[in-house]
């Protein structure tokens, strides 16, 4: 029976809960989830993030605290923060625990964007649409299991180009 | 077309995506998608075997369609097929599809695991990484079972490529978080720790996340990582900005790795080894020094990366809280940031300083920034920054600056954002109380709060001001005068009316000498607000009026007139009507002496932890569950804190002066002595509330356990408590002045799960908080351990799983130990696990029931008991109790309609025991006869049931 196997209170301490890239209209260009959410939950989160992030301007910080389910099965709310940065019409958002290092993730986003820019030669929104399956590869090179995997742009790009050359 | 897609892309996919983008409407999009789905389906079903490229393309299209938000119910098999392709691009799409779309309990998992296994042993680093990323992304238990043994080997093997090591480390981390029981590090520990020394910075970056997680769970096993982390950090910090080449980011050497190293160190106390510690302090000083150096670049990336390290270093300094010099330097650095033009830095500085304020070494240094922080509160554009400023003001407040801070916060409240008002109100209320030197200032502050932000003043806040006024006679006259003045305002907040009503009802006499506030003036003033108020406030005012009759006999006629008016005595609201009727009667028939006793001034409230503080902590803290218990508690004690010596109970100063909140009919006897109220409630309380049997019933009728000064295991009340929970699963299990334990439990077959909610009622943290459960052999329990710290006002939740192996008599013992202010608290309780919890109700027809009943005639199968109906013989109450017992209540089975018969099966792991029960109430003698018949001849069970029935 499912009764005992449900691990109610274990909300594994994952650093990054999700990464989202959205445009100003709220269209998702990438959604990478590092914890289990069901489809409705994901949709709700996507809308919520869009709502809180798009109303902010340059005078605001790049951090927003939000209250989300920490553990869906036990309906426990907890505070998280969205660290985001806007590039032209795209918002890059990372959701982490409130105690995580804001600036490290903020620059984590920028590092990621610079890699995308290099890889796609001046990245634009359409690149992410048409090559969505490659964007996942870039993400996995740089972030894995909700943690930062590799930070060196040189190393990541070298690896990506190597993969690119494979059939 | 994007640069990289030239030549290598899937043309069909690009065309399809363009088509979708060109769709003018949602309908058109759906049409196009359906067409594509039909096409793909026919290709997959077709006779012709698809080549790898086509399969990849179609799977990728399906994935795209899924990501657009449409359901995909086929293609999984094709995706799994792609996994065994030997072409990278095909494999990649296969793995991507699996990661995004396949949930962990898919039946394909075996095939997927097979493919992963092949790739892991392929020695092809690219394939190995794909497989590892898939495991890391899915992280299911099945995968953990299959690969948790293999991955550590890959991680530490000498010939593993660096990039594979990186993936393996994080993959293992994911499995460890999802299924810690399956990842056994034992033999690998030391080699994993030594990855901190790896030449490849990327490997260190990935491995350190794994090590941090493992260290936080098993600090002792991993403590060798401290010195390794310090030396690694030291090498990075002292390197020139270009030494680390690839890992230098905008002239900052390895910022992310530095942050991770500093964070790992926060899992441990300061290093004991002097040399290591010296080296670390040197690192921290260097980081602080670098913050003062001119920037090597004007780019924000440079300063962000540098400051990311700085803030993490400050976190570590605060974590150690032992180096005064570093703490003060950190504070000064943050002080500079408070005025920085970057909003991010101001925000982070406020946040970080908030934790510094609580260190004794830096508290004074933080206080020097008060003006800047007040300014931030007034001028910051981003509400989250203002919020941090308010937090910091709260944290830096002490006796020396309380008046200034409270005044600033009050004036900010006038324009504060709605989102933070309630919290601000709580903070002001707490500071005002905590640092009040003269209580007139306190009263002024709270009344100002109500004036400025009445809507946000929660019950806790105005309850508290009343508690304090009642307990301190030096402020009562002032309070009466001030509320009287405040009530003069033409429009005053309802909360003001409540406080005013209560205080004038108690202490109006203190200002009645002045003709401007004579009794009648006071009454008229209060009554002028009456019609604008909600029912609870009106109820409170009525109570104030009856108090007036006692305080000022000259107002009696006027007030009786008001009570007698149709709008009161025939009010459609039961509560108001009842009060009007009772108060009118009371004032008419009771002698002055009786009145004076009944309506005596409220006794002082027992001093206790401020409920406001608890509320604030709750607002900020985790669990949201506590609300319910808190509520229950307040309510539970409404009905007469007075008769319990008041030591453990915490009577709520609720709206009721008299505590007549209970809707129970007052018994007809004429009130005779001072104990009137107590009598009324002890009669009315239980019978009125026990109808609700399940949760609320318990909460409102349960006598809170009196805290024994020297808790000796197990508490004497334990058994009584146990009985309370025979027919119910939720309620307050235990409460004393420090701790409240709430319980929620659920049972299924022979398994039970209990949630215990430990609430710290004080403002001080409990340390070394530890709980253990000892079970009789017939039960098996599993308890999830808690963190050893329970913050003041916080509530933590613990889960206990229980399995019933066979029948049992003794309940499990729960032992709770913690230190409160240094003193060890040691409490033992019986957990309310009784055999009937494992009842499964069984429905059966009359014939069936009596046939079985007759079959079981041996004496050891039967238990009978005659006992007094201590809780009355109300049908509904009895039914609810019997249902609460867990059995099925069989209607229309017993020929005598007065009797109740029940049937159930007790589920234990070893056996299932049927149980039949008949209850024969004897209304004349007010006794019940219980007869219990067991299908199994186990006497032990019989006795159990007997004792359970006893307690019903």
TrEMBL record, chain A:
It is a peripheral membrane protein. One of its GO terms (molecular function) is clathrin adaptor activity. Gene3D superfamilies: 3.30.450.60. Pfam families: Clat_adaptor_s. It is found in: Cell membrane; Membrane, Coated pit. InterPro entries: AP_complex_ssu, AP_mu_sigma_su, APS2, Clathrin_sm-chain_CS, Longin-like_dom_sf. One of its GO terms (cellular component) is AP-2 adaptor complex. Keywords: Cell membrane, Coated pit, Endocytosis, Membrane, Protein transport, Transport. Belongs to the adaptor complexes small subunit family. Adaptor protein complex 2 (AP-2) is a heterotetramer composed of two large adaptins (alpha-type subunit AP2A1 or AP2A2 and beta-type subunit AP2B1), a medium adaptin (mu-type subunit AP2M1) and a small adaptin (sigma-type subunit AP2S1). Interacts with CCDC32; the interaction is direct and mediates association of CCDC32 with adaptor protein complex 2 (AP-2). This is AP complex subunit sigma. The gene is AP2S1.
From TrEMBL, chain B:
Component of the adaptor protein complex 2 (AP-2). Adaptor protein complexes function in protein transport via transport vesicles in different membrane traffic pathways. Adaptor protein complexes are vesicle coat components and appear to be involved in cargo selection and vesicle formation. AP-2 is involved in clathrin-dependent endocytosis in which cargo proteins are incorporated into vesicles surrounded by clathrin (clathrin-coated vesicles, CCVs) which are destined for fusion with the early endosome. Belongs to the adaptor complexes large subunit family. This is AP-2 complex subunit alpha. It is found in: Cell membrane; Membrane, Coated pit. Adaptor protein complex 2 (AP-2) is a heterotetramer composed of two large adaptins (alpha-type subunit AP2A1 or AP2A2 and beta-type subunit AP2B1), a medium adaptin (mu-type subunit AP2M1) and a small adaptin (sigma-type subunit AP2S1). It comes from the Eukaryota. Keywords: Cell membrane, Coated pit, Endocytosis, Membrane, Protein transport, Transport. Its main location: membrane. The gene is AP2A1. One of its GO terms (cellular component) is AP-2 adaptor complex. It is a peripheral membrane protein. Residues 723-832 form the Clathrin adaptor alpha/beta/gamma-adaptin appendage Ig-like subdomain domain. One of its GO terms (biological process) is intracellular protein transport. Residues 623-666, 688-715 are annotated as: Disordered. InterPro entries: Adaptor_Complx_Large_Subunit, AP2_complex_asu, ARM-like, ARM-type_fold, Clathrin/coatomer_adapt-like_N, Clathrin_a-adaptin_app_sub_C, Clathrin_a/b/g-adaptin_app_Ig, Clathrin_app_Ig-like_sf. Pfam families: Adaptin_N (PF01602), Alpha_adaptin_C (PF02296), Alpha_adaptinC2 (PF02883). GO terms for molecular function: clathrin adaptor activity. A 1,2-diacyl-sn-glycero-3-phospho-(1D-myo-inositol-3,4,5-trisphosphate) binds at residues 11-12, 43, 53, 57-61.
């Amino acid at each position: 029976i499912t009764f005992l196997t449900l691990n109610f209170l274990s909300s594994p301490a994952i650093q990054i809960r999700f990464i989202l890239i959205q445009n100003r209209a709220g269209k998702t260009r990438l959604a990478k989830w590092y914890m289990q959410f069901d489809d409705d939950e994901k949709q709700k989160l996507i809308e919520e993030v869009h709502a809180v992030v798009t109303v902010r301007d340059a005078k605001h910080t790049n951090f927003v605290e939000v209250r989300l389910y920490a553990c869906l099965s036990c309906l426990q709310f907890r505070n998280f923060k969205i660290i985001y940065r806007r590039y032209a019409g795209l918002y890059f958002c990372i959701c982490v625990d409130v105690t995580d290092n804001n600036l490290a993730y903020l620059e984590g986003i920028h590092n990621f964007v610079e890699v995308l820019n290099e890889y796609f030669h001046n990245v634009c929104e359409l690149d992410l649409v048409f090559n969505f399956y490659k964007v996942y590869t870039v993400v996995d090179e740089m972030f894995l299991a909700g943690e930062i995997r590799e930070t060196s742009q040189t190393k990541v790009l070298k690896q990506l180009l190597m993969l690119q050359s494979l059939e | 077309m994007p640069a990289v897609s030239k030549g290598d892309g899937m043309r069909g996919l690009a065309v399809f995506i363009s088509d979708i983008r060109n769709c003018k409407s949602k309908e058109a999009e759906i049409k196009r998608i359906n067409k594509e789905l039909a096409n793909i389906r026919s290709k997959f079903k077709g006779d012709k075997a698809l080549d790898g490229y086509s399969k990849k393309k179609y799977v990728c299209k399906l994935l795209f369609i899924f990501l657009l938000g449409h359901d995909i119910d086929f293609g999984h098999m094709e995706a799994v097929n792609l996994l065994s392709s030997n072409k990278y691009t095909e494999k990649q799409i296969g793995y991507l599809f699996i990661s995004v779309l396949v949930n962990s309990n898919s039946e394909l998992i075996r095939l997927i695991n097979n493919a992963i296994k092949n790739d892991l042993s392929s020695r092809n680093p690219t394939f190995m990484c794909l497989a590892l990323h898939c495991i890391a992304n899915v992280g299911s238990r099945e995968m953990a079972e299959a690969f948790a043994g293999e991955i550590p080997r890959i991680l530490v093997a000498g010939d593993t490529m660096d990039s594979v090591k990186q993936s393996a480390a994080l993959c293992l981390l994911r499995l460890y978080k999802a299924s810690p029981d399956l990842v056994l590090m034992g033999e690998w520990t030391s080699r994993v720790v030594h990855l901190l020394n790896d030449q490849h910075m990327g490997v260190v970056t990935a491995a350190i996340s794994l090590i941090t997680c493992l260290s936080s769970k098993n600090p002792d096993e991993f403590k060798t990582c401290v010195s390794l982390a310090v030396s690694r950090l030291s090498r990075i910090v002292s390197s020139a900005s270009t030494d680390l080449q690839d890992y230098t980011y905008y002239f900052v050497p390895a910022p992310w790795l530095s942050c991770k190293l500093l964070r790992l160190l926060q899992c441990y106390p300061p290093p004991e080894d002097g040399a290591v510690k010296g080296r670390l302090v040197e690192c921290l000083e260097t980081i602080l020094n670098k913050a003062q150096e001119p920037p090597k670049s004007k780019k924000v990336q440079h300063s962000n990366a540098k400051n990311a390290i700085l803030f993490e270093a400050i976190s570590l300094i605060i974590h150690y809280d032992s180096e005064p010099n570093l703490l003060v330097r950190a504070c000064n650095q943050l002080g500079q940031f408070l005025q920085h033009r970057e909003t991010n830095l101001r925000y982070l500085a406020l946040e970080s300083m908030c934790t510094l304020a609580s260190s004794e070494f830096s508290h004074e240094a933080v206080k020097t920034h008060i003006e800047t922080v007040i300014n931030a509160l007034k001028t910051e554009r981003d509400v989250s920054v203002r919020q941090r400023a308010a937090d910091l003001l709260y944290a830096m407040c002490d006796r020396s600056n309380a008046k200034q801070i409270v005044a600033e916060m009050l004036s900010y409240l006038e324009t504060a954002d709605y989102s933070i008002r309630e919290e601000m109100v709580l903070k002001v209320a707490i500071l005002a109380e905590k640092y009040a030197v003269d209580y007139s200032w306190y009263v002024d502050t709270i009344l100002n709060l109500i004036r400025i932000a009445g809507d946000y003043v929660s019950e806790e806040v105005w309850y508290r001001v009343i508690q304090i006024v009642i307990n301190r006679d030096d402020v009562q006259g002032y309070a009466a005068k001030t509320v009287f003045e405040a009530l003069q305002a033409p429009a005053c907040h309802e909360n003001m009316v409540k406080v005013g009503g209560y205080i004038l009802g108690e202490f109006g006499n203190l200002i009645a000498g002045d003709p401007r506030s004579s009794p009648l003036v006071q009454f008229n003033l209060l009554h002028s607000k009456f019609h604008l108020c909600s029912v609870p406030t009106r109820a409170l005012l009525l109570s104030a009026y009856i108090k007036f009759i006692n305080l000022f006999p000259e107002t009696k006629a006027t007030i009786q007139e008001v009570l007698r008016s149709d709008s009161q005595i025939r009010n459609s609201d039961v509560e108001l009507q009842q009060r009007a009727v009772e108060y009118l009667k009371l004032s008419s028939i009771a002698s002055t002496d009786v009145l004076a006793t009944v309506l005596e001034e409220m006794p002082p409230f027992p001093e206790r932890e401020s409920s406001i503080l608890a509320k604030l902590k709750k607002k900020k803290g985790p669990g949201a569950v506590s609300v319910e218990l808190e509520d229950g508690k307040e309510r539970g004690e409404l009905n007469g804190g007075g008769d319990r010596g008041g030591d453990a109970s915490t009577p709520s100063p609720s709206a009721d002066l008299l505590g007549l909140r209970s809707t129970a009919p007052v018994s007809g006897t004429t009130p005779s002595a001072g104990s009137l109220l107590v009598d009324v409630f002890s009669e009315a309380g239980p019978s009125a509330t026990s109808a609700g049997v399940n949760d609320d019933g318990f909460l409102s009728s349960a006598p809170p356990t009196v805290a024994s000064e020297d808790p000796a295991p197990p508490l004497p009340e334990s058994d009584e408590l146990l009985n309370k929970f025979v027919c119910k699963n939720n309620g307050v299990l235990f409460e004393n002045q420090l701790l409240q334990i709430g319980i929620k439990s659920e049972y299924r077959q022979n398994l039970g799960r209990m949630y215990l909610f430990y609430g710290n009622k004080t403002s001080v943290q409990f340390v070394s908080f530890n709980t253990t459960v000892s079970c009789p052999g017939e039960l098996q329990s599993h308890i999830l351990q808690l963190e050893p710290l329970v913050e003041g006002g916080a509530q933590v939740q613990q889960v206990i799983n229980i399995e019933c192996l066979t029948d049992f008599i003794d309940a499990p013992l729960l032992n709770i130990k913690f230190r409160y202010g240094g003193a060890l608290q040691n409490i033992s309780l019986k957990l309310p696990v009784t055999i009937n919890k494992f009842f499964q109700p069984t429905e059966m027809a009359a014939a069936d029931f009596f046939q079985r009943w007759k079959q079981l005639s041996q004496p050891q199968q039967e238990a009978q008991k005659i006992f007094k109906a201590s809780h009355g013989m109300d049908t509904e109450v009895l039914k609810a109790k019997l249902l609460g017992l867990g059995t099925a209540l069989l209607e229309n089975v017993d020929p005598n309609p007065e009797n109740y018969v029940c049937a159930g099966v007790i589920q234990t792991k070893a056996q299932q025991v049927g149980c039949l029960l008949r209850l024969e109430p004897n209304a004349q003698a007010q006794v019940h006869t219980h007869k219990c018949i067991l299908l199994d001849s186990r006497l032990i069970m019989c006795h159990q049931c007997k004792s359970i029935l006893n307690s019903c």
